[in-house]
Amino acid sequence: xxxxxxxxxxxxxxxxxxxxxxxxxxxxxxxxxxxxxxxxxxxxxxxxxxxxxxxxxxxxxxxxxxxxxxxxxxxxxxxxxxxxxxxxxxxxxxxxxxxxxxxxxxxxxxxxxxxxxxxxxxxxxxxxxxxxxxxxxxxxxxxxxxxxxxxxxxxxxxxxxxxxxxxxxxxxxxxxxxxxxxxxxxxxxxxxxxxxxxxxxxxxxxxxxxxxxxxxxxxxxxxxxxxxxxxxxxxxxxxxxxxxxxxxxxxxxxxxxxxxxxxxxxxxxxxxxxxxxxxxxxxxxxxxxxxxxxxxxxxxxxxxxxxxxxxxxxxxxxxxxxxxxxxxxxxxxxxxxxxxxxxxxxxxxxxxxxxxxxxxxxxxxxxxxxxxxxxxxxxxxxxxxxxxxxxxxxxxxxxxxxxxxxxxxxxxxxxxxxxxxxxxxxxxxxxxxxxxxxxxxxxxxxxxxxxxxxxxxxxxxxxxxxxxxxxxxxxxxxxxxxxxxxxxxxxxxxxxxxxxxxxxxxxxxxxxxxxxxxxxxxxxxxxxxxxxxxxxxxxxxxxxxxxxxxxxxxxxxxxxxxxxxxxxxxxxxxxxxxxxxxxxxxxxxxxxxxxxxxxx
Amino acid sequence: xxxxxxxxxxxxxxxxxxxxxxxxxxxxxxxxxxxxxxxxxxxxxxxxxxxxxxxxxxxxxxxxxxxxxxxxxxxxxxxxxxxxxxxxxxxxxxxxxxxxxxxxxxxxxxxxxxxxxxxxxxxxxxx
Lengths: 600, 127
Known about the structure:
The complex is a heterodimer.
Chain A: H1 2-49, H2 54-59, H3 63-73, E1 78-85, E2 90-94, H4 105-113, E3 118-125, E4 128-139, E5 142-152, H5 161-193, H6 198-207, H7 212-260, E6 264-269, E7 274-277, H8 279-285, H9 289-292, H10 297-300, H11 304-315, E8 324-329, E9 333-346, E10 352-361, H12 363-398, H13 405-436, E11 445-448, H14 449-466, E12 470-474, E13 481-484, H15 486-502, E14 509-516, E15 520-527, H16 550-553, H17 561-571, E16 575-581, E17 585-593
Parallel strand pairs in A: 12-14
Antiparallel strand pairs in A: 1-2, 1-5, 3-4, 4-5, 6-7, 6-10, 8-9, 9-10, 11-13, 14-15, 15-17, 16-17
Helix pairs in contact in A: 1-5, 5-6, 6-7, 12-13, 13-17, 14-15, 15-17
Chain B: E1 6-10, H1 14-26, E2 30-34, H2 37-47, E3 51-55, H3 63-70, E4 80-85, H4 93-98, E5 102-106, H5 111-126
Helix pairs in contact in B: 2-3
């Protein structure tokens, strides 16, 4: 500690001495410079003053000249200027401060008695030195006048303001350098001190305790610690690097997974920048990832509905709930419907981290929903139409509006017919629903085809007879047998045979044929009725489908018969085909596998 | 005595056409009938009925298409359209709201309610 202080003091003193020395040298240099200037000025001025003729000098023609001199040339440096005549008497005197009166006689006498240029320096009082210049003016080889000029010598006071500026400046800059140097050192050591081991070293240096050996030991320990820290930092760096690689890999994997999705994904970060868009959505938007990534979604997403949705969800705040919006991408995927939804992903603190926008193709769902709605509409229509008739006819009767007996009969018949229609319709719908839902399973028994044929003809005979329609049977020698549900098969065949009767004109001819192959029984029903339009054929097995032909529209029907038939045949692993021509008739061919017959 | 109003009935169901004809005639209206939307449209254009009662679900131009096609005619000659429907599909609500002088009656409807609706409409439009 003492050593440090001593060295510091010594250094400080040295600096002070240095400053003083430099300052003094500088001062001396400046003073000498001033001195030379004064002498030169004095010589030239005295020369100038003694140049005019003696008569002029004595007549005082230079009076004006003196004044000008005193004001302009040397300013306040002129102490006095006196012109003596041939008898050494002062004839002209310029002495603003009356300094000439204090000039010692010895100086005056020497100036007056010498016959050439003379320069003398003397001190009048402390801090005021005068340099007197004297020069005789000759006229007719006699001294006619003597000019004396006193100039103030430069001040020798070291402690003047001007003189102190320089050392003060030097001292200021040295102090500034010292302060900066000190703090820089402290700062460096503090930095190092953060590392274990450097503390002791710094403390040792700061306190001044211990000697160089201690400091070196501390430094060595500190260096060892630095080395250890460096190793740790390197290990940490490698660990982080591998984590980064894993993270990048995981990110890439994530993005690859997103790209494999069959729906659109858009990620927007909390600065409203596009973070990621998967391939599916890029294709829909018709834009590339480079167009969008790391840019404000408002600027880069061209699809107005999508942009509006994000904006709307953004305005809705950070709620976790997801809402959706339906939209289309007609430019890239016309005719398809998409549903867009949004969810906010938050970090552990609950702040919004990423917004996830999903764009899902819902065309199929919409189609399914629409066909379900259509189905419900059909059922409602089919059920409520007979119900309307029952209600309306009944209401009219009850209101006593129908008095005519014949009309009353007609009304009762209509109510009865419509009730039957409704009951039959409900049965058909239930049958179809149960078949479709698999609630009815075909009971596989051995079914005799002759029984089937007769049962079907019997069911439609009444209507056929009414219309004078003949049903011709075409049968093999031996009726084949099949494994199946006899009631179901009968119901399926009755639907087709019934349609043949219903949609044939009076006196028409229908053929019901049974044929056999090795493993199949074929039922063929031909009619010469109204036939079907080509455009109706692909739809006849659809539920509630009814042709718009007048002959069809005029007949009541649910549009469910053929749908039920198709379902039953499907349950028996069979097939149904139809050939039809408008106004010529139709042919239905039903093939049912015989199945494993149990001979009994 | 005012001229009898003419009401057009469009339905593919013969029984509905029949009961509405009887009810309307009993209530002092003249009636016209059509089996489908296409026939109905021709009658609307040529015979200019004062009101139309139409089923929604029909072959050859259904009630919706008929409404949309006849709606512009109502600018010059307003007439009431009563659509009889078993069910209004949620998807259909939009076009329904855009139609002028159109109302809906759900099946099974009461014939008296139809007469009431017609009477109210004519009272309002002639006032």
